[in-house]
Write a structure and sequence with these properties.
By secondary structure, this protein is mainly beta. It has 1 helix and 10 strands; from the N terminus they run E-E-E-E-E-E-E-E-E-E-H. The protein is about 5% helix and about 35% strand. The structure holds zinc ion (ZN). The site of zinc ion has 8 residues, from loops.
């Protein structure tokens, strides 16, 4: 199955071959680098240059490599959002954690959320709250 992933702001394609590419910047160490994620939802394999050291629990800001927009949500900085389009042209909002080691993904369409990953409970609350209250979280 071939899914396209794109930036919510510039609509630039983030998937190249079998990876999603982001610019990641650590909030703690200020290190910056390219990170490649699997386009398969629920697969948390990542790749990066060995000099770009990442430790468990480190918080990252993810940027679109094309327009450099911050992809972390304002309402919850731990969550990163991109758009996905499936083979039928259906669009989904995909959220994942920007914290190293947290394995959770949320797929949203028409207010229906499908969570996956061993850490799915972490941000469940965020998706249970009606849109108008999210800014208070
Ligand atoms: Zn962009």
């Amino acid at each position: 199955m071939w899914y396209n992933y794109y930036c919510p702001v510039c609509k630039g394609q983030l998937r190249v071959e079998n990876s999603l590419v982001f610019v990641a910047k650590s909030k703690t160490s200020n290190q910056k680098g390219l990170i490649f994620l699997s386009p398969e939802l629920g697969n948390y394999t990542t790749s990066k240059h060995p000099e770009f050291g990442i430790s468990e629990g480190e918080e990252f800001v993810m940027y679109c490599p094309i327009c450099h927009t911050t992809l972390n949500r304002k309402e919850n900085n731990n969550l990163v959002k991109v758009f996905m389009q499936d083979q039928d042209g259906k669009e989904y909002e995909i959220f994942f954690s920007g914290i190293a080691g947290e394995k959770c993904t949320y797929k949203m369409r028409d207010k229906q959320v499908e969570g996956m990953g061993p850490d799915v409970e972490l941000y469940k609350e965020y998706f249970d709250v009606p849109e108008e209250y999210k800014k208070y979280l």
